Amino acid sequence: MAEDDDDLILSDLPDEELVPQMHDDLYDGLKDEVVEGVEILLERGWTPYRVLTEALVAGMTIVGNDFRDGILFVPEVLLAANAMKAGMGILKPLLVETGAPKLGKMVIGTVKGDIHDIGKNLVSMMMEGAGFEVVDLGINTDVDEYLGALEKERPDILGMSALLTTTMPYMKVVIDTLTEKGLRDDYIVLVGGAPLNEEFGRAIGADAYCRDAAVAVETAKAFVARKHNQAAAG
Ligand code: B1M
């Protein structure tokens, strides 16, 4: 951004100027400034979730739009993503702070061929914050890695993330493999990622498509409660 911003003292800005400034700083990949902005908002009493959605996710949406429109390119987007991750790093311990008993367990990973992990990380954070235990397999996860983790961890939920139209069909490969092995009904399968929708979720045989991290938490809670009720009744 412009050199005039060099002298900008973020803590002097009121919230309504600080947040757009943080969007600019995220856009410019200014990690330290994004972290500082996050800390200032927290000190001002913002909830971690509000900082996450209004300052970070909203800023990343602007980055995404300009990436789509050919205004930003991969190196710039990587810098923005790193700044976003640094900000999320501050929020994570606050979002996952919970003394509540575990509601259930989820194994999650971004599918094979796909290295986008910001959304998945956000879902993991929010799920942990809501009281789920999360085992994160990372990016570029192939079917054997998913199956190995399911066998080892015995989670209630399998979560898959994909951000590319070319990688989202891999979710079906994983679900079909579970079906072939007679394991499909052992897990609640939740999928998400920007190019997906409900229809796609249904078509590949997932239990639900989750539009965002908050929906993922609500959906997970509802399915796990249903599973426990069925187990109690059966
Ligand atoms: Co990429 N990229 N990217 N990228 N990138 C997109 C996805 C794209 C839409 C940009 C665009 O053109 N507008 C486009 C895909 C087009 C398409 O497939 N139709 C694209 C492309 C093309 C590419 C490359 C191919 C570019 C290239 O190399 N030419 C390449 C692919 C590399 C690969 O994966 N093999 C690539 C690379 C990258 C970077 C490395 C630079 C970086 C990723 C850094 C990282 O993740 N560590 C990057 C980024 C940052 C983006 C955008 C700009 C932002 C994604 C993001 O983090 N969003 C993205 C544009 C966009 O999405 N508008 C784009 C913020 C995040 C909070 O949202 O991930 O949607 P999201 O997650 C949400 C929900 O979707 C949901 O909850 C989350 C939180 O609310 N959700 C789940 C997600 N996963 C879930 C799982 C669940 C539940 C909910 O399980 C239960």
TrEMBL record:
Q: What is the lineage of its organism?
A: Bacteria, Pseudomonadati, Pseudomonadota, Alphaproteobacteria, Rhodobacterales
Q: Does the keyword Methyltransferase apply?
A: yes
Could you tell me which PANTHER family the record lists for this protein? METHIONINE SYNTHASE
Protein name (record):
5-methyltetrahydrofolate--homocysteine methyltransferase
Statement: the UniProt record of this protein carries the keyword Oxidoreductase: no
| Entry GO terms, CC | cytosol
Q: The B12-binding N-terminal domain covers which part of the protein? A: 9-103
Molecular function in Gene Ontology: cobalamin binding; metal ion binding; methionine synthase activity
| Keywords, ordered alphabetically | Cobalt, Metal-binding, Methyltransferase, Transferase
Q: Which GO terms describe its biological process?
A: homocysteine metabolic process; methylation; tetrahydrofolate metabolic process
